[in-house]
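Example for reference:
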Amino acid sequence: FRTVEPLEYYRSFLKENCRPDGRELGEFRATTVNIGSITTADGSALVKLGNTTVVCGIKAELAAPAVDSANKGYIVPNVELPSLCSTRFRSGPPGEEAQAASQFIADVIENSQIIAKEDLCIANGKLAWVLYCDIICLDYDGNILDASAFALLAALKNVQLPSVTINEETGLSEVNLKQKNPLIIRKHPVATSFAIFDDTLLIVDPTAEEEDVATGTVTIVTDDEGRLCSVHKPGGSPLTGAKLQDCITRAVTRHKEVKKLIDKVIKSIKPK
């Protein structure tokens, strides 16, 4: 029944206000985060959302700022969905879903002002940091956007950048690896995704199977003050204002849970 008529199979559960994996409609999968697990990166995090597993590694490099924004550094996100994470993806250049996820993460960084790009500038017009944020999916089971945004935020909070000065006599940069500083994280954007069933029912944190049979999806990104940073809705069923408001309210609650989880993990790894 599940294979032949997946939609009917799901409807039989949704009528009873539950889902095939036993969760309620508004219940998230178990969420875990591990920070600083990649020693070769300047900052890293591994996030598990149910079976969906995403790792984010951040590499910092020095570069000259762009001419039109001489006092700003760069943040370059890239989401990879390799063939090892699911049979739905092929090896080779990034597919449509990976490109859409990369664009979503770039929008979240821009709209939420998670980091002020001015903070990445070392010397105006001469030197700035470039943060390459590689987000790689290891196991794909739906809701890649929430997991990617969470992994990025956790990895950024783990970044330690060495102190850099410019020698005025030689004009060359001098890097002091002994003195490292954390990034200034100005906002904590958290994504919350919903799948829409039969144009009316909303379920939170959809699995890959639920995304496949849903009539649409929507992702809400909120920050620390409950402000809306971004709404990502790639087509599908329209949402009424009341439904959207309901999503935003749930997203604000989810933000508090995720923030609490990150703070707890960071506290546990800080040297005593």
